[in-house]
Amino acid sequence: MLGLMQNHPLLISSLIEHAERHHGDGAIVSRRVEGDVHHTDWTTVAKRSRQVANALDAQGVGFSDRVATIAWNGYRHLELYFGVSGSGRVLHTLNPRLHPQQLAWIINHAEDSVVCFDTTFTPLVAAVHAKCPTVKLWVAMCDADKLPADTGIPNLVSYEAWLAAQPSAYTWPQFDENTASSLCYTSGTTGNPKGVLYSHRSTLLHAYAGAMPDALNLSARDAVLPVVPMFHVNAWGIPYCAAAVGCKLVFPGPAMDGKSIYELIESEGVTMAAGVPTVWQMLLGHMQASGLKFSTMTRTVIGGSACPPAMLHTFHDTYGVEVLHAWGMTEMSPLGTVCTLKNKQLAFDDAGRMRVRLKQGRAVYGVDMKIVNPDGQELPWDGKTYGDLLVRGSWIIDHYFKAEGASPLVDGWFPTGDVATIDAEGFMQITDRSKDVIKSGGEWISSIDVENIAMAHPAVAMAACIGMPHPKWDERPIVVVTLKPGTEVTREELLAFYEGRIAKWQIPDDVVFVPAIPLGATGKMQKMSLREQLKDYRLPGV
Predict the structure, then answer these.
(1) Is the peptide bond before 123 cis (omega within 30 degrees of 0)?
(2) Does residue 522 form part of some domain?
(3) Most confident option among 22-31, 401-410, 491-500
(4) Residues 193/187, Cβ–Cβ less than 8 Å
(5) Which of 73, 79, 130, 421 qualifies as a FRET site for 261, CA 20 to 30 Å off?
(6) CATH code of the domain in which 454 resides
(7) Per-chain mean pLDDT for the chain
């Protein structure tokens, strides 16, 4: 027997229709590449999204064809989010921080037919366009009178002229909710990047879950600043959550430095911001140097990599901002866990609550997880036993794009590549990436633990722990650090800082000072590059 309910497919177009109908005057604020701050609202975004759909129809872009973006967070990018996917095409967000050769490979692999780009990236597009034969139209996201000249890019049009030629009336098509909606490629730390193809259904379920109180806790009362790029896993799904709840959106554009982010938070009354730790390091550094405080921001979501305890303490103790530690992956849309305290944990003392907050959190409904040993046997949730973390759920990958039938799943579970513990309350904590964990004398050392202690030292700006070959112990840890401007610390002082904070055998064997730690396209530390950089390094006494 089937239920007797209406059967409306879960489609991205329904999100923008809802936002327009119920939150039409909700503000969308964007700092633009032109240098100014642009103001619009959900009604206008919905209207211009329909113009995007009409423009794609006029261009002859087919159903499920890929339309790519190379753009910062801003209102035009938001219009493409809904206009492309809502009309049945696939939005393909490209990471401009990739090498041009890799970017061209991705465009060709995805077979993009249209590429829309912010004018900041004109040199990048000029470098790759000739290598991208599937692209029939290049759209510069600017006013008609700001179209870059003499670029050599064929069929180049301005976004505003492209839209102006189209009517704003459009009927969003209805189709199977399992239809592909958007495409993101993994960072590609080994080999070529892999495409993760989301569906309308997975995207809407993820938006429902992401907005829930125990997840990102978004509502029409919020002003949200997604510092996490819209080219990185759809800005963690925040644009879709925002349309669902009608909150104010504040987009930073290309200005990602601490001063610019702080000014935007204060001028626009931001209540919640989301980003990776490297962005918040710049923000906190600016605030501490200038003696500043927040007047409206009450919480921040930190993901992408583990939040150093020192950063969590600074946000919470100094600025009164609740830190929501979160974890996920491109293959997971990306939301997996958020560290929201349970009712009984609110009664803990400050130290007890902080111990919980340092974990990546508990699974959002829609995600199931487990930890296993190398033989695949499930391990207990005791908060101490660590193993390989596996996940499954309604917005988690089944196959990679064009993977020719090969599935990454193990008995229906996706292996994340993370090593983790899960406690009796279901709170998960990443202890390392499986490829980064240091195996010393038959025991494992968490590089994250070593890094977090270094990051607590007042002179350290960034720290990366990697294993180095040792003839007796197999591997021993070293910590590679960059210092804050105007500070000093010796090797001996930093190693002494570990005493009493970690087991003696887990203390690094050495400290290597470097001017900069290599970061990847999404702001994560690139330990593979760091290992290559230190390939001639030898441990003391070895």
Answers:
(1) no
(2) yes
(3) 22-31
(4) yes
(5) 79
(6) 3.30.300.30
(7) 94
- pLDDT grade for 191, boundaries at 50, 70 and 90: low
Reply yes or no on whether the pLDDT at 109 is more than 80.
yes
What is the distance between the alpha carbons of residues 93 and 73, in angstroms, rounded to a whole number? 11
- Let me know if residue 392 belongs to a domain: no
Distances (CA, A) of 400 to 88, 185, 363, 416: 20, 9, 23, 14
Residue 35 amino acid letter: G
At residue 487, the pLDDT reads 93
pLDDT at 152: 93
Under 8 Å between Cβ of 303 and 326: yes
Alpha carbons 186 and 109: distance in angstroms, whole number: 13
Q: What domain range is 487 assigned to? A: 437-533
Q: What are phi and psi of 506, to 5 degrees?
A: -95, -5
Distances (CA, A) of 203 to 49, 195, 233, 234, 237: 18, 16, 11, 10, 8
pLDDT score recorded for residue 409 = 96
Report pTM: 0.86
**515 or 406: which leads in pLDDT:** 515
Radius of gyration over alpha carbons of the chain, in Å? 24
* 462 within a domain of the structure (yes/no): yes
In a domain, 441, yes or no: yes
Residue 18 DSSP label = H
- Rounded CA gap, 78 and 62, in Å? 21
Question: Nearest 5°: phi and psi at 331?
Answer: -70, -5
Write the DSSP assignment of 468-535 as a string of letters: EEETTTEEEEEEEEEEPTT----HHHHHHHTTTTS-GGGS-SEEEE-S---B-TTS-B-HHHHHHHTT
User: At 227, phi and psi to the nearest 5?
Assistant: -80, -30
Question: Which pLDDT does position 298 carry in this prediction?
Answer: 97
Short-list 181, 34, 56, CA closest to 115: 56
**Average confidence (pLDDT) over 169-185:** 98
**Catalytic machinery residues:** 186, 331, 439, 444
CA 319 to chain centre: 24
| φ, ψ of residue 270 in degrees (nearest 5) | -65, 130
